[in-house]
Design a protein that fits this description.
Layout (H helix, E strand, L loop, with lengths): L16 E9 L2 H5 L3 H4 L5 E10 L7 E2 L5 E5 L7 H18 L7 H7 L7 E6 L4 E6 L1 H10 L8 E2 L2 E10 L2 E4 L21 H18 L3 E2 L5 H6 L2 H5 L3 H8 L6 E7 L9 E7 L2 E7 L3 H14 L6 E9 L4 H13 L3 E10 L2 E9 L2 H9 L4 E3 L2 H7 L13 E5 L4
Parallel strand pairs: 8-10, 8-11, 14-18
Antiparallel strand pairs: 1-2, 3-7, 4-6, 5-6, 8-9, 11-12, 12-13, 14-16, 15-16, 17-18
Helix pairs in contact: 6-10
Length: 407
Amino acid sequence: MINVRKTLPGPLAEGDAIIVYMYRLRTMNRMAATSPWDRALPLLVIGAICLTVLFSATATAARVSDLYAATGVLPADSESPLADAFNEALGKVLVKVTGRRDAAAPDFLVTLFPDPAKVVQQYRREDQETIWARFDRDEIKRVLDGSGQPVWGEDRPVILIWLALDAGRGQRSILPAESEADVLPIRTDEALSFDFEQLDEVRVVVVEAAESRGIPVLLPLVDAEDLSRLSFAELWGDFSDPVMAASERYGADAVLIGRARSAAAPGQQVRWSLLQGDERIDWQGSLADGPNATADWLGGRLATYADSAGKVRLSVAGVNSLDDYGALTSYLKSIAVVDSFDVSRVIGDHIEFVVTVRGDSDRLMRAIRSGRMLQPITGAQLLNSDPWALPGYRREPDLAYTLVPSP
């Protein structure tokens, strides 16, 4: 499956969409055996996870649909090749779901899932050496909750990756979303030149690392619009203001910046920085360490534990019909941090819910912010619109929103 982005003439407007994708590459031998048309494509995309992200003035998260699916290799010398492949695939799933790199460790797997086949919902052969398997989401969450392990839901921040590559001898580039062999030349900076094949290899490493952690990522178009706002020198020199200005059109939740001296050099050659809101973290590592450390940090903040559940009073205004109520309750059920909810009271078009949340009101607020169904009510708006905020009523809600009308 090959995904081609639409060509954008200028900044992304509200309602525009592009594809956020994660991919694996077939081996070079398999690429060599393809048709002339396929050989003209520098990237053969398989097992794609496609996420359509709508952009607006505020950041929006993406729902990762295949967190509970992965591939595993069938070892030729194993007495139980299918069981070994299930074990490998389940380990990959647990890394994505817990947000922990060590979740695929043999001791961890054996303790929690002594027989991975029991949690397999479906599987198929990808080829003679590989299987793809989907695991039982509810059963995995039940086991993780029962053992006190973290669970990170499907709604995850979209990360925009700006990667500056300097291979020396004037070879410099910003890693683009597509192979430069696939697009028309749109460069406005003649200093940007790099070997196409090496760029493709770098792209594979970075995006495969993100895929292995369940992180939806964007790579910039690096078109005339981007280069008018951000130069290679500014990206390399760690000037965050132009980086953030160039990032606005993509509407990502966080920006990951990498600066690599040589993409081919082994060891710790990339300086990474992650910017989210007012927070920033810096580290050095390999190409894959950029997405991996990002997932470590986000998982530590966003993954939840069953024993941390708390009650949150949520008020929603603008519920004027049974259709509104049905859409609202369906939406609440879809939020990963919501365990359950009950209607506490109703006045006019206001409904108050008591929501059991894996975490606290901040986690629920972040989850709601990633959607487009509820708009927050604060300050004077709350006093003017919420009957429970007026004197003489019981405790005010912890969170207050209004239902966004359907288009």
